[in-house]
Structure to design on (471 residues):
C-alpha cells in the first residue's frame, strides 16, 4: 500500500480515535505519520496507541512514523476567587507571586523567570492574545500593568511574552520524564516545543542521543531571529502557527511560513506546516474554501508534510479530515503550475560530490523519463538530498535500518522501504530493480535512476549514479 502523493500527512491521535481499527482508517485515508501529543493523555494511553500503530505497520508492510510531541513549559496565570474576572482597557492590573486567589486588580503569575525578563513597555498576551497588557513597572516578583485590550480572564489561562527571551529550558521535568518514556517505546521523531535559541536544540540532542530525529517547533519570535542556526541543528522543523500566530501579528504569519519553508529547503531539512489547517472539520464534515486554500498554499510553498491536530485528535470527523487533506494535496500536485513553482524555487547544489550526484540524478531522471529514483541509505542523508531536489518522479528510499525508514515517512516524495543490507554494486542494482517492481513504481522496460554511496554504509557518501533498465 502506498499513498499517491509527495507531501505527507501527520495525524494527531486522541480521544476521537479509539483503537487499532480507527487508527487503521486514518492510515488508509492517507496518514503517513502519527503524532502522540504528550500535553494530553496518560503514558498508558500513548503506549496503547503506539503498539496499535506498530501492529498496523506489520499488517500493511509499510514503515509508519511516530512523533512524540513534548508539552514544553506552559506559562499560566493562577486562579481567581470567582473563577474569572473582567478587565477593562486602561485599568491597572497587578501580576505577582502572591498565591492568593485573584480578582479584578490582581492575579498570581507563578513564574519567577518571567519577571526577570520583563522591562517597562513589554507587552504580555493572555488567553491566546485575547487580553493584552503593557508593563508599566516591574521587579523580580511583580509586574504592574496597564490593560491595553480588555476582556474576560479566567483560571489558568496561558501567558505569552513575545518580545522577551526567558531564562529557562524548553524541557521541563515532565518533558524529561515523557521524553525518556517515548524513547524507550521507540518513537521516531521528538517534537521540541518552546524553542527560543540554538542552545535549546543542543540540550535536547544530548538527551535524545541519536535515538530519534529532533523536530523543532517554531513558536517564538526569538527562535525566528536565529532561524538559520536552529535549522542547522534540527533534523526537521515545524511551522507551529498556533503559538506563533499569538506571538507575532497575524498578518506576519503567511510571510514567516514561506520564509521558514524556504530556509529549510535550502538546508535540506524536512519542514512541517501545522495548526488550524482544516479547523472547521472539528465540527463539520467539509472544510471552508479558505481552509482548502490554506492547505494548498502550504503544498505550493513546498512543505514536506502537513499536520492535523484537533481535527483528528478530538474532532467529529477524523477520517474525513485526513481524506480531505489527501485529496487537496493530490489535486495541487496534479496542477501543471505546481512544478513550475517547484522549479523556480530549486536551490543550486553545493560544491560537493554528493550534491552534484543528487542534482544529476534528478536531471537524468527527467531526461530519460525514468519511472523513479532509487536511493540506498543508512542514515537517510542520501534520500534527503534526493528529496531536496524535488524531482518529478517519486523517490524509493531503501535502507537496512528500520528507524531510518520510519523517519523517512515524513519526507517529501519518499516511499521508504526497509530492506536487507547490500555489499556490492551489482547487488545494489538488482535490489533496486526488484523492489521498484514489487512496490509498483516501475514495470519491465522502464528505466530507473539509482544513487548510493560507496563504501556502502558510509553516511553522507553519495557518489554513485546508475541508470538501470527494469527487466
Amino acid at each position: 500500500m502506498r499513498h499517491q502523493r509527495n507531501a505527507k500527512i501527520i495525524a494527531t491521535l486522541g480521544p476521537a480515535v479509539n483503537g487499532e481499527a480507527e487508527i487503521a482508517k486514518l492510515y488508509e485515508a492517507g496518514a503517513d505519520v502519527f503524532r502522540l501529543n504528550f500535553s494530553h493523555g496518560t503514558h498508558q494511553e500513548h503506549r496503547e496507541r503506539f503498539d496499535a500503530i506498530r501492529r498496523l505497520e506489520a499488517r500493511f508492510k509499510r514503515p509508519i512514523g511516530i512523533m512524540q510531541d513534548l508539552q514544553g513549559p506552559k506559562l499560566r496565570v493562577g486562579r481567581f476567587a470567582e473563577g474569572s474576572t473582567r478587565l477593562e482597557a486602561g485599568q491597572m492590573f497587578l501580576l505577582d507571586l502572591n498565591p492568593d486567589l485573584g480578582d479584578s486588580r490582581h492575579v498570581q503569575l507563578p513564574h519567577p523567570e518571567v519577571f526577570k525578563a520583563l522591562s517597562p513597555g513589554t507587552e504580555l498576551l493572555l488567553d491566546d492574545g485575547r487580553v493584552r497588557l503593557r508593563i508599566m513597572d516591574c521587579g523580580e516578583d511583580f509586574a504592574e500593568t496597564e490593560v491595553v485590550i480588555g476582556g474576560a480572564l479566567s483560571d489558568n489561562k496561558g501567558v505569552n511574552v513575545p518580545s522577551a527571551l526567558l531564562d529557562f529550558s524548553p524541557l521541563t521535568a515532565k518533558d524529561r520524564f515523557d521524553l525518556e518514556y517515548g524513547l524507550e517505546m521507540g518513537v521516531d521523531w521528538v517534537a521540541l516545543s518552546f524553542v527560543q535559541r540554538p542552545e535549546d536544540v543542543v540540550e535536547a540532542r544530548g538527551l535524545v542521543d541519536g535515538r530519534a530525529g529532533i523536530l523543532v517547533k517554531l513558536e517564538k519570535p526569538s527562535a525566528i531571529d536565529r532561524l538559520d542556526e536552529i535549522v542547522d541543528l534540527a533534523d526537521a522543523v515545524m511551522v507551529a502557527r498556533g503559538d506563533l500566530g499569538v506571538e507575532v501579528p497575524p498578518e506576519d504569519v503567511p510571510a514567516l511560513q514561506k520564509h521558514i519553508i524556504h530556509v529549510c529547503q535550502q538546508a535540506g531539512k524536512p519542514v512541517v506546516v501545522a495548526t488550524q489547517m482544516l479547523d472547521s472539520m472539528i465540527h463539520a464534515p467539509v472544510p471552508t474554501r479558505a481552509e482548502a486554500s490554506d492547505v494548498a498554499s502550504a503544498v505550493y510553498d513546498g512543505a514536506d508534510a502537513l499536520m492535523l491536530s484537533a481535527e483528528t485528535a478530538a474532532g467529529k470527523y477524523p477520517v474525513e479530515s485526513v481524506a480531505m487533506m489527501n485529496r487537496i494535496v493530490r489535486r495541487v500536485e496534479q496542477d501543471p503550475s505546481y512544478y513550475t513553482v517547484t522549479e523556480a524555487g530549486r536551490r543550486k547544489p553545493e560544491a560537493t560530490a554528493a550534491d552534484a550526484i543528487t542534482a544529476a540524478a534528478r536531471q537524468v531522471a527527467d531526461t530519460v523519463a525514468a519511472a523513479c529514483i532509487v536511493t540506498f541509505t543508512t542514515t537517510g542523508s542520501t534520500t534527503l538530498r534526493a528529496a531536496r531536489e524535488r524531482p518529478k518522479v517519486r523517490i524509493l528510499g531503501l535502507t537496512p535500518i528500520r528507524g531510518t525508514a520510519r523517519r523517512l515517512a515524513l519526507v517529501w516524495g519518499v516511499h521508504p522501504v526497509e530492506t536487507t543490507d547490500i555489499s556490492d554494486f551489482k547487488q545494489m542494482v538488482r535490489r533496486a530493480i526488484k523492489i521498484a517492481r514489487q512496490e509498483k513504481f516501475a514495470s519491465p522496460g522502464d528505466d530507473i535512476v539509482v544513487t548510493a554511496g560507496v563504501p556502502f554504509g558510509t553516511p553522507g557518501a553519495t557518489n554513485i549514479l546508475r541508470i538501470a533498465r527494469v527487466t
Remarks:
- The radius of gyration is 24 Å.
- The chain has a mean pLDDT of 94.
